[in-house]
Design a protein that fits this description.
Layout lengths: L1 E8 L1 E5 L4 E3 L4 E2 L3 E5 L6 E9 L6 E4 L2 E3 L5 H17 L9 E8 L10 H15 L7 H6 L14 E4 L12 E5 L7 E8 L8 H11 L3 H21 L3 H21 L9 H17 L4 E4 L6 E6 L3 H11 L11 E3 L5 H7 L14 E8 L5 E3 L6 E2 L2 E2 L3
Helix pairs in contact: 1-2, 5-6, 8-9
The structure holds ligand DP6.
The site of ligand DP6 has 14 residues, from helix 4.
């Protein structure tokens, strides 16, 4: 039996991927840029075993068995890596051997946080390690076929997914902009919004947008190329002000396109809008841009903020969005913020002029920019003799 276990990060888009020109190959209509998040707070972990004795391909997600061969995206990733392995020549075991795959996330999937990107990136990376393939950019074209945004999770730091021009998608790859060490004090507060409603997923939402939005082509052709240039420059120069403005405008435009879809897709809710207002008020009170929000296809807010401003921002969040659980470790997850109490006493931010009703947030995760996927040792496997660890 051969086994590999790896971890892959979540990424959060700054310039958003929204719209495909090829649904099957998952080719986007525009470039995108993301930041990879630290795997300490959020990651997918996957173990894959291959054995002559396995009767069929099996997969367990967070301990529950899920369909394998019926999952077209999963099969495309598997076949993609197997093709690479064949081309590579040096194959360790016959491709007829079946696979057992166990994967889990270290963060609640129910929160509606991007888990497919980390999941597919982890799947493809772990398969590559299992087949002992070199880690090349070609792997990003395979992860992309699991979930578009997954290709960006194969790198750490800040990542650019080039849409590419070719019909076969071989030039639609993700490349690093800078490693995480370039801007190590770039942190993030994720405000998880209490919300139980089921929404139109990204795949469906962007498909409807391409079909019906009259604004989306103008965005893809004119707005995004300019923003990619400006954001790349802002990242290289560690220019938070430019970074923040582009990020917030991008998020706003994604949701404008979603509303321009017919019938409209509404991802942000009243709490999301209250958070966006809060960030603008907070920045105004500070007299400079200290925080930037971005929202994906859901109501949760991701706030970019430099490490030195985290205590002040968090103190302001706590005052503007009071919560009965705010002292508990369950409410404030991730990197600890030691001087919070001191900031809570001293905050005079005008942002706090508006205090929202209690308990609008479910919890907060404090994380930061992080590195790309990596392999773990065999004793960290999620499979024992090809079967998932007991829960
Ligand atoms: C709003 O990668 O989840 O998060 O390719 O259909 O699987 P599929 O979509 P997905 O879309 C992510 C959209 C987004 C923006 C982004 O991550 O760039």
């Amino acid at each position: 039996m051969y086994t590999a276990t790896c971890v892959a990060p979540v990424n959060m888009a700054l310039v958003k991927y929204w719209g495909k020109r090829n649904e099957q190959l998952i080719l986007p209509i525009n470039d995108s840029i993301s930041m990879t998040l630290d795997t300490n707070e959020m990651c997918a972990k996957t173990t894959i075993s291959a054995s002559e004795s396995f009767k069929q391909n099996c997969m367990w997600l967070n301990g529950e068995e899920v369909p394998f061969e019926e999952n077209a995206r999963l099969m495309r990733c598997l076949e993609g890596v197997q093709r690479l392995a064949l081309a590579n020549g040096d194959i360790k075991f016959p491709q007829s051997w079946k696979l057992h795959i166990a994967s889990c996330n270290n963060f609640p999937t129910a929160a509606g946080l991007a888990s497919s990107a980390a999941g597919y990136a982890c799947l493809v990376y772990t398969l590559a390690r299992l087949y002992e393939l070199p880690i090349t950019e070609e792997l990003t074209t395979i992860a992309r076929q699991g979930s578009g945004s997954a290709c960006r999770s194969l790198h750490g730091g800040f990542v650019h997914w080039r849409k590419g021009e070719l019909e076969d998608g071989t030039d639609s790859i993700a490349v690093p902009v800078v490693p995480w060490t370039h801007w190590p004090n770039m942190h993030m507060l994720i405000l998880v919004v209490n919300d139980a409603r089921k929404k139109t997923g990204s795949t469906k939402g962007m498909q409807l947008a391409v079909e019906t939005s009259t604004l989306i082509q103008q965005r893809a052709k004119q707005v995004v190329p300019q923003r990619i240039k400006e954001l790349t420059q802002a990242i290289h120069q560690r220019d938070f002000k430019a970074f923040a403005e582009i990020t917030m405008r991008e998020s706003n435009q994604l949701h404008a396109i979603a509303l321009d879809t017919y019938p409209p897709c509404v991802y942000m809710n009243d709490v999301s809008h209250a958070i966006s207002n809060f960030v603008h008020d907070f920045n105004e009170a500070a007299g400079e841009l200290l925080a930037a929000y971005t929202f994906d296809a859901g109501p949760n807010a991701c706030l970019y903020v430099l490490a030195e401003h985290v205590p002040r921002l968090l103190a302001a969040v706590q005052l503007a969005f009071p919560n009965d659980c705010e002292q508990s470790v369950e409410y404030l997850k991730g990197i600890p913020v030691p001087q919070l109490a001191q900031h809570l006493n001293g905050v005079g931010d005008a942002a706090l002029a508006h205090v929202n009703p209690k308990n609008l947030l479910k919890y907060i995760i404090h994380t930061k920019v992080g590195k790309g996927p990596y392999q773990l040792s065999d004793d960290q496997s999620l499979l024992i003799d090809g079967l998932p660890l007991p829960k």
